Hints:
By secondary structure, the protein is an all-alpha fold. Helix content is 49%, strand content 0%. The protein contains 3 helices and no strands. It is flat, with a radius of gyration of 27 Å.
Amino acid sequence: MNLLSALDDQPPALLSAQLFTMSVFLTAYLVAVTGLLGTRGRLRAAVVAALAGIALGFLFTPWTLGALFVAGSVGAIGLFIGLSWLLSRALGVHDHAPSMLPELEVEDKALPVLVTLSAADRVDRTERGGFAPPTAPAPLG
């Protein structure tokens, strides 16, 4: 029996549950693999992905079809991450830390001095139609 032809033999009542469980698995696995959350959030996402992967084995009529979907999606995500890593290494952008500051070319070893204005030297922006300076929030207690 061909496993891909077994997709046509799935009960129609389970199709929405299969799609929902597959989307939960893919979302949780991507969150667990990437650095979107901290360590605790990634661990929770990995547990949700494992439970959804096991549930896919129960939802598909031949359980091997659910296992193939899980293995194929994990392999595809791993291939994408590996290829993007190789591309970033090949282009030379892998080790650069993102920064919003422009790169300064300083000829001597002295550090540039930043000039700050005191409160008396600043122009009041509210007179010119700009925004007022930020204020601290009021205490809750």
